[in-house]
Each structure stands twice: as structure tokens, then as C-alpha cells.
Amino acid sequence: MLSSRERVMKALHHEAPDRPPKDLGGMLSSSISGFAYPKLVAALGLPPRLPKMYDTGQMLAMPDGDVLDALGVDIVTICGRATNAFAEPEKWLPYDFNGRLPALVRNPANFVTEEEGTIVQGATRMPPSSFVFDALHGGQPLNMSDEMPKYDLQAYAAGLTARHLRDEDIVAIRELCRRVRDATDRAVFFNEGALVPPMSIHGHGGMGIFPVLCLTEPDYVAELHEIVTEFALHNIRALLPEVASYVDVVWLGSDDWGTQRSTIASPKIFRKLFLPYRKRINDECHRIAPQVKTFLHSCGAIYDLLDMIVESGFDALNPVQWTAGGHSYQEWKDKARGRLTLWGGGVNAQGTLLLGSVAEVYAEAQRVTRCLAQDGGFVFCNIHNLLAEVPPEKVIALYRAAEG
Length: 404
Description:
Layout: H1 4-12, E1 32-33, H2 37-43, E2 52-55, E3 60-62, H3 65-71, E4 75-79, E5 82-83, E6 93-95, E7 103-105, E8 111-113, E9 119-121, E10 124-126, H4 153-161, H5 167-183, E11 187-191, H6 210-216, H7 218-243, E12 249-254, H8 267-288, E13 293-297, H9 306-311, E14 316-318, H10 329-336, E15 341-343, H11 352-355, H12 358-372, E16 378-379, H13 392-401
Parallel strand pairs: 4-11, 11-12, 12-13, 13-14, 14-15, 15-16
Antiparallel strand pairs: 1-3, 2-3, 4-5, 6-7, 8-9, 9-10
Helix pairs in contact: 2-13, 4-7, 5-7, 7-8, 12-13
């Protein structure tokens, strides 16, 4: 029988493993709500524990090793310089989110509770009726009567230079990665923000602004992306040689190009203003560490971008939202087959998972998995995170269905 790491790597090399590899919490779009996690732990018959909230914006719990064992998950994470490959009690402190969720967080001082129960974290808020933190207008206000805001590119470049990894950062990250490799036979998913270029169609002012700038001021966007690319290449060249022997998959971007029906911007914009820069970054990663696979997260109806995502050099794509845009999961598989690993897409998360029965969840996940796992090139998980409203019985059925 294959080890978990062998299973994942076979899939990433487009070879059929003994069963489809499974992910839960490898990155911050394949995880589970902290509100749902204690119920899952109890349903699996495991000892209760405080969830480690490794994303307190989306309110996501880092899955523990015994949960990964119980669900047959093949991947561990390194995220925010923390891991679930072994215990790190020194990194976590208790915080109960105003009595709503006894949990562990990295820094309780980040939260302030208002009189009516709303918890404030920076510019975001979680009212008592909410399960996540959010900001007004999603943090992206838009006033079309104003001039489109742009950066002072010289100052922006200086700000990125200040974020270059220091020698002591590299040593600490390398030591953590080494310990993780020694501690587990699962594949290691490396999420280090210093390697991820701040490049997205919905960034730099927001979804209403940046796509317009891509149309009206492409020279400005090209100069911006050149600055971003040089920043990413600097940190990749500094860090990746130090950790390449300890990690298997590297997250290189979250760039949601799709709505429920179409791409946010024209594929021509992707080809001209995104593809060349992403390709340079992927090419450098593959030059330095050809055995390490690169990963892109991009939500929505992005079927029409799949060829260009392959051309950009990415090895894996998540969350595989085949429910958006009118293309079936079979069409996604046929387009990606042998070229791009589909990481996710295990069930209709907005329909079947929330509204269907446990049996319907199991049946659909089994059908989808059999299709997407053909010829390898597939890692199983939900389309995006498992939300607070998803009962544990459905989560368990989802992961059991992936076994065939």
C-alpha cells in the first residue's frame, strides 16, 4: 500500500494511485469552519479539544492528526508558520469568541468585543449572527464617480522590498519544514505568504476597480506586475532552495477569476497581464525545485482559463468549481487530463452538500470522484471550505465516498 505522500505525488504526476488522495485543511480554501469542527470531532468518536483557528477571518480550524487519520487524509499543512504535523502548544492561546466558540488562536489581543456582542478584528467584524469576519463592501468600496485609485509605484516597490525574507526568517522556516518532514509520511503543503505575489484580478483596489484598470491602463498594470514578480522571485530564490527537500506542494497564489457564470475579466486580460508574470514565477520554482509542485487557488467559472493556467506553469488548481459556468465536471476533467491536477470539486458545495441528504452527498461525491480521479491528476476535497452549517454526518460521508 502506498504511503500518503506517495499517493499524493502519484496523483500530481498524473499516475493513478491506489485510491484518490484526500485533503482537509492543506490550505485555507480546503478546510473546515471552527464552528463545525467540534461536531466533527465528536461524530468521529474522538476526544474533545479546542480547535486551533489558523484563519480567524474565515474562522477555519486546523485539523488535528487524529481527525486526518479518521478521514484518511493524506496531507498536512505548514501555514502561518504553524503545522498540524505535530503539537505546537507554545504557539496557541485560548480565546472563546465571546462565548460562542471556545478555541485556540495565535494572538487573543487581535480581538475586541463590542457591547452588543460583535467581535472586531482589525477592519473586519463578526456580529453574533455571523460565522466569519467581514468588512463593509467586502473591504472593497467602489465609487465610480471618483478617479480610479492607483499606487505610487515607487513607494509600492519600496514597501515590497521591506517584506524581503530575512536570514533569521529563512532559518526558522527551514527548521519547521524539516521537523514536519521528519514527523509524518503525509505530503507537506507549504503555505508561506512571502512566496505569494500580491497579484490578483480583484486586488489593488478591489474587484470593481482593478479589472477596469486592466482595460484602461494596461501599461500601469504591467509595471505593477513587474514589481510584484521581482518581489516574488527574490523570496523564492532565497527560501525555496532551503525548504525544497522538505515540502511537496507550494501555494503560489489565490486569484479568484470567476463569478458564478463567467470570468471577472476577459481571458485576453489574463493572457496579456497575468500569464507572463505567473509563468516566470512558476518557471523559477520548477528550475530551483523540479520535484515540488505549484498550486493556484482560483474560484468561480474559470473553465475558459484552464489552458492558460496550464501555460502559466501551475501543477495544481483549486477549488475546481465545476458548478459555476455551465461546464460539467467531466468537461473539467477532459480539459485538464494529463496536464493539470484538479484539487477539489468533490461535491456541489452550494447545492448537494448543504441541501441534500447524507445519502445524496455520498452518491454525488462518489460519482464525481470516479470521474475526476481517472488517470490520476486529482486530489479530493470539497469545493472550498466546509461551512459552519454543514453537519458532521455529511462531512464523514463526503470523505468515505472518496475511497471508492
